[in-house]
Amino acid sequence: MAIHSPQGSQWQSPSGYQPVRSALEGITVYAPRTKTTEDIVSVEYKCPKCGATTQYDVAAGGIACEHCGYVALVSGKKVGRQAEEFEFTLNTLKQAQQGWGTAHQLLHCDSCGAEILNPPGALTMTCPFCASNQVGIRAEAPSNALKPNTLIPFKVTPEMTRARAGEWLGKGWFHPQELASNAVIDRFSGIYLSFWTFAAQINSKWKAEVGYERTEREYDFSRKEWRTRMVIDWRWENGQVGINLADLLVPGNSRVSWVILEKLYPFNLNELVAYAPDFLAGWQAQAYDVSLPDAWEQGKTIMRDRAKSACRSDIHSIHVRNFSMMADFADESWRYSLLPVYLAAYKFENKVYQVMVNGQTGATAGQKPVGWWKLWLAIAGLLSPGVMVGLAGLLLLVVVIGIIPVIMGVVLFAIGGFISLKLYQQAVASEAA
Question: What is the mean pLDDT of residues 264-290?
Fold first, then answer.
């Protein structure tokens, strides 16, 4: 919309429009005003009866006041897997709404760098990501980040997490006995974590040398007998496989362990509801720090791996070499969602460990310290029978029966070594997840 504004005129710009740069001198151009962070209405939750701060109560399913018992039910529109998705175009990114729609403070951890959106007045001084107390208010929560499209409300109450975490911490014989009673079970923080959800249709063309087994008979002149041997015949083949991938989750936070997060899957995405700021009242949230383009690169890598697996399944032989594949993506779309996770970071013998609980299903995963003296005793117990039998066999080699204990010792040692290796790998994984 271009309008000439004479000098000295009292003409006012239309409502909802703002002046933009014009290529012609003397001409003022007006365009629809871009939505700014000031346009986002931030809601503060105060009890209409007593004026106290309220928050979303999982058990009540609504905004509740712990002082007078007031409850206002929150009924988000259930959208499930049919929630709106966006194409990868510049227009959809510009049109995506911004801001959280609710007042939150931004807490910054000086130890690990995590930034957590906290409700006003809830000055949690322990970082749920690294257990550091070097946490302070940096600024108001940024409103220029993309607004979530959907979320899954918390279903597991904070009280339930303590029982689930205590049960999980007590599992495993090679962990310290005092671990289950550690104060970690009292320091869970309910946090809405950001996730990118991707969907795409992938058309993959593959080419490879495929080998097929056949047997042939040949005469062994040295032994004067016929023998059978297996021969692999190789030939080039190609094919095409189309797959449709939807609801691929990629975490939007780099401060949490993606390995642990994957152990909390699956989330029931049929329970997605349209985003409403009421669900965040009194709860922490973390905005994404993994941008949409970076998350999409992660998603494409996962999708290519799945397409490769589909192509390999299309080959009816276990013998494959010189495999190559070209994957074409179509109908790519994305969605930005918040998913509920209880998170705790605890220190044990000066090391920091993370524990997470799925806020929808209650699935629990995380890191647990290892009582290494227990593990070494167990490994010694597994290896000692083979060593003892083998040494006994060596002492008896002077007689004919000596070779039998030696063989038995080698077998027992190999079995014990295999089991010991698996136990060691399991223990290392429990600490480094």
Answer: 85
Burial 356-365 (b: 16+ CB within 10 A, else e): bbbbbbbbbb
Render pLDDT for 45-83 as a digit per residue (tens, 0 to 9): 666 667 666 667 777 676 777 666 667 666 667 777 777
CA 204 to chain centre: 26
* Residue carrying structure tokens 């290796």: 421
Amino acid at 387: V
- Distance (Å, whole) CA 71 – CA 63: 6
Which SS3 state, helix, strand or coil, does residue 169 take?
Answer: helix
Q: In sequence order, which residues have a C-beta less than 8 Å from that of residue 130 and are 6 or more positions away?
A: 109, 111, 112, 114, 345, 352
Q: Please classify residue 214 by burial: count the beta carbons closer than 10 Å to its beta carbon, then call 0-12 exposed, 13-18 middle and 19+ buried.
A: exposed
Of the candidates 261, 253, 256, 262, the one whose C-alpha atom is nearest the C-alpha of residue 286 is: 253
The DSSP code for 148 is P
How large is the angle between the packed helices 403-432 and 372-395, nearest 10 degrees?
A: 170
Query: Domain coordinates of the chain in residue numbers?
Result: 2-34, 45-369, 372-432
Residue 322 pLDDT grade (very low, low, confident, very high; cuts 50, 70, 90):
very high
Phi-psi region of 51 (alpha: psi -120 to 50; beta: other; left: phi over 0): left
Tens digit of each residue's pLDDT (9 = 90 or more) over 199-247: 999 999 999 999 999 988 887 788 888 888 889 999 999 999 999 998 9
**105-109 and 115-118 beta bridge pairing:** antiparallel
Q: Which tokens in the block code for residue 55? A: 């928050």
